[in-house]
Specification:
The structure holds two protein chains of two kinds.
Chain A: E1 3-6, E2 10-13, E3 18-22, H1 36-44, E4 52-58, E5 66-72, E6 78-83
Chain B: E1 31-37, H1 41-54, E2 59-62, E3 78-79, H2 86-106, E4 117-121, H3 124-139, E5 145-147, H4 149-155, E6 171-175, E7 179-180, H5 183-196, E8 200-202, E9 207-213, E10 216-222, E11 227-234, H6 240-245, E12 254-265, E13 273-276, E14 281-285, E15 290-297, H7 309-322, E16 331-341, E17 348-351, E18 357-361, H8 371-384, H9 398-401
The chains are: A mainly beta, B alpha/beta.
The structure holds flavin-adenine dinucleotide and zinc ion.
Chain lengths: ~90, ~425
């Protein structure tokens, strides 16, 4: 069970959150201009690293706000949480 | 075999003893015709059929841990072929037919028990989808029946079919030929048979790189040194993204923990396998007597072979909803594996953009049942350089063409 530090509410139990997958995936600026390969990449391919991963969470049973976290998928350690719109922090 | 006959024997009496040595753990040679990355069920079955069906025996199975210590050792062993779409029915039914002759073929007991699978329906939509799936299954030659709640109760007397519960049982689909097997024996059976045909089983050998020259794979880097290969076949399940990434190939996968649990040993009470999508759990009773339960993945990506406890709690409350008789059973053990999930809940099996590099992955929460079938088809793909007709629909390029095989929900709980 993860202890997730919501940037607004502080550390809360994982059961209070909803997962949103990879963070910083921008909607294509001009979708009609994409090739099939590019469209497939946008729709179906997400990073799946064993290591640091920037991901989205929503505190559904709390403040109901979305935010981002950088978590190590090999250890589950959460290195940083930050609010939507803020850049991904650099982790040494 | 009729449900229940298994149970009248002393639990565990028909289990063969733990083997001393079924295969030799080989030292890596400097080169092979085919290197298989990953010694789970799929890698081992592929090695066996490469040797048996195609006469290719200069093969190494490289496993970073011990043989079949990944998802093969962690799954809940449900075998069925009642998937909705023709493509899925094709490969899973091929697998089920192979299961039906596998003990004789491998000369090894697998405790394959065709005790049937019930997929329960709890809403009108469930009922419509289920009846549609029964009809689709029959058109594909897959045995399937629609059962009323009373018939469900006949097959599995401990299911609560009373109408005054939160999610009443409105009926269910039944596949009599479905069932369970003993996962470890399946791995050992394939490993032994493949090793007998000359395949090298190389344990504690992690692949740390893939050598690609002019768009063609030429070998692998490992923790036990470089190994040249004419062909490389990936079968790394939860770690497929990592391994394929060594050759610059990206896969539409997300790796998630999937948990399961067993109760203490109980008298035989549960004669079949029951799965429920709405009340999310599935339950069978292992040969020794444990109730074996599982449900869905942990939501967050992770490569840790463990998950969150609230997932287990939900699984158990769902089980109690269906089987009030389990109220006093104790959990003996919970565990997790790392499964590779695709966007359409169907696997990826076939060629890659790198020549002579093949991929088999994306079986997610449901690849155990496919073990012999995928081994057969993947071996064909690797041996001939062309996809077997049964895995051709599961190519990587379906995500570009849009010809997905969407088994989400369609196939009931995805195990
Ligand atoms: C809890 C749980 C329950 C499940 N229940 C069912 C079920 O009821 N029915 C069903 O059909 N399926 C089920 N599954 C899914 C099934 O277990 C998998 O789809 C299937 O086992 C995957 O194929 P495999 O056996 O080859 O995988 P694995 O056994 O995971 O084999 C992959 C191997 O690759 C190795 N590997 C990874 N990276 C490297 C590397 N770099 N170098 C060398 N080796 C490497 C791993 O160590 C591992 O041994 C379940 C899975 C889990 C976790
Ligand atoms: Zn919050």
């Amino acid at each position: 069970m993860l202890l997730i530090p919501c940037p607004w509410c502080g550390p809360r139990d994982e059961a209070e959150f909803h997962y949103g997958g990879q963070a910083h995936v921008a909607y294509p600026e001009d979708p009609a201009a994409l090739s099939d390969e590019e469209w497939a990449r946008y729709l179906f391919f997400r990073d799946n690293p064993k290591g640091l991963f920037a991901e989205r969470w929503s505190h559904t049973a709390g403040c109901r706000r979305w935010f981002n976290a950088v978590r190590d998928t090999a250890t589950n350690e959460i290195h940083a949480v930050y609010r939507t719109g803020e850049p991904r922090p650099v982790i040494a | 075999m009729s449900p229940g006959t298994q149970g009248r024997r002393t639990p565990g009496a028909d289990l063969p003893g733990h083997p001393d040595r079924l295969w030799r753990s080989a030292e890596p040679k400097r080169a092979y015709d085919v290197v298989i990355v990953g010694g789970g069920g799929h890698g081992l079955a592929t090695a066996y059929y490469l040797a048996k069906n195609h006469g290719i025996t200069d093969v190494a199975v490289l496993e970073r841990g011990w043989l079949a210590g990944g998802n093969m050792a962690r799954n809940t062993t449900i075998i069925r072929s009642n998937y909705l779409w023709d493509e899925s029915a094709g490969i899973y039914e091929h697998a089920l037919k192979l299961w039906e002759g596998l003990e004789e073929d491998l000369g090894y007991p697998l405790l394959f028990s065709q005790r049937g699978v019930l997929n329960l329906a709890h809403s009108l939509q469930d009922v419509r989808d289920s009846v549609r799936r029964v009809n689709a299954n029959r058109l594909n030659g897959v045995d399937a029946e629609w059962l009323t709640p009373e018939q469900v109760k006949e097959v599995c007397p401990i299911v609560d079919i009373s109408p005054d519960v939160r999610y009443p049982v409105l009926g269910g689909t039944y596949q009599p030929r479905a069932g369970i097997a003993k996962h470890d024996y399946v791995a050992w059976g394939f490993a032994k048979a493949a090793a007998d045909l000359g395949v090298d089983m190389i344990e504690h050998c992690e692949v740390t790189g893939l050598d690609v020259r002019d768009g063609r794979v030429t070998g692998v880097q490992t923790t036990r040194g470089p190994i040249a290969a004419k062909k490389v076949a990936l079968a790394a399940a939860g770690h497929s993204s990592v391994v394929a990434g060594y050759a610059g190939v990206s896969l539409p996968l997300q790796s998630h923990p999937l948990q399961a649990l067993v109760s203490e040993l109980l008298e035989p009470v549960h004669p079949t396998v029951v799965m429920s999508n709405a009340v999310h759990v599935y339950v069978s009773q292992a040969h020794k007597g444990e109730l074996v339960m599982g449900a869905g993945i942990d939501a967050a990506n992770s490569y840790r072979q463990r998950g969150a406890f609230h997932i287990i709690e939900r699984q158990m409350s769902a089980a109690l909803e269906l089987f009030p008789v389990f109220a006093r059973a104790h959990v003996l053990r919970t565990w997790g594996g790392v499964v590779d999930v695709t966007p359409d809940a169907s696997p990826v099996v076939g060629l890659t953009p790198v020549e002579d590099l093949y991929v088999n992955c994306g079986w997610g929460t449901g690849g155990f049942k496919a073990t012999p079938g995928v081994g057969w088809c993947y071996a064909h793909t690797v041996a001939t350089g062309e996809p077997h007709p049964l895995n051709a629909p599961f190519s990587l390029d379906r995500f570009t063409t849009g010809k997905l095989v969407d088994e989400h929900g369609a196939a009931a709980v995805a195990h």
